[in-house]
Amino acid sequence: MQDGQQDNANTGRSVLVTGGNRGIGLAIATAFAEAGDKVAITYRSGEVPEGLLGVKADVTDSASIDAAFTEVEQQHGPVEVLVANAGINRDTLLLRMSEDDFADVLDTNLTGAFRVIKRASKGMIRLKRGRVVLVSSVVGLYGSPGQINYAASKSGMVGMARSLTRELGSRGITANVVAPGFINTEMTAELPEETQKNYLSSIPAGRFAETDEVAKVIRWVASDEAAYISGAVIPVDGGLGMGH
User: What are the distances in angstroms from CA 200 to CA 45, 147, 169, 204, 239?
Assistant: First the structure.
């Protein structure tokens, strides 16, 4: 058993991570796979990492999602853990932001999460158990200039998780939000040094997070240890947002 694995009976589950073939999504999928879960990912392009079941899907298309879930169910059984991670951004200042810029980001990030949750909930209700984790962002709580569309989509996840908790909490299903801050990725590495310094100065921890630090929190909140946590917003941001 590798370091950090969950040593409990709550492994070997059918897990689905949307947008799971790169970045934070891949780290999440890998964390669950290392714990012994059967992990599937949705992806739109690129390669499927070894050890994961890849299903092509577009979260803006309900028929595509239904087909993806059907394939996962046939190979791994009903989805017991859903991580809604797929997302896009179209950053620009309000006065330059088109309605399409706004609508497309909401359709992928927020309505996309609704579509996958709705499809997953059918199996979870039958099983009388389930874990839903929505990958939000500190931006959804803290705000950010040039990201009105992205921030709206990520803050909307909070209301979604809390309403889901009230609807399905009695069925053994939890729904939580994890809100990462700045993460060490290829994108942040390419930022100008001065920009990186400005970002770092606002983070009490004084560093960016690693993708696996986010992934392990998500894996934990989907575990038996967190069975009594639902409707929560868990920041993984080094103190940047202080929960807001």
Answer: 32, 19, 38, 8, 11
Whether 163 maps to a domain, the answer reads: yes
Task: Tell me whether residue 2 is in a domain.
Answer: no
How far does Cα 26 stand from its chain's mean position? 11
Q: How confident is the model at residue 189 (pLDDT cuts 50, 70, 90)?
A: confident
Other CB atoms within 10 Å distance of the CB of residue 9:
7
As a whole number of angstroms, the distance between CA 209 and CA 228 comes to: 26
Q: Which residue in 125, 115, 218 sits closest to 173, CA to CA?
A: 125
Choosing from 43, 142, 150, 199, the catalytic residue is 150
Active-site annotation holds for 142: no
User: What confidence score (pLDDT) does residue 7 get?
Assistant: 46
**Is there a domain that residue 60 lies in?**
yes
Residue 240 maps to a domain: no
pTM of the model: 0.93
Domain that holds residue 98: 14-231
Quick one: tokens of 22? 């790169």
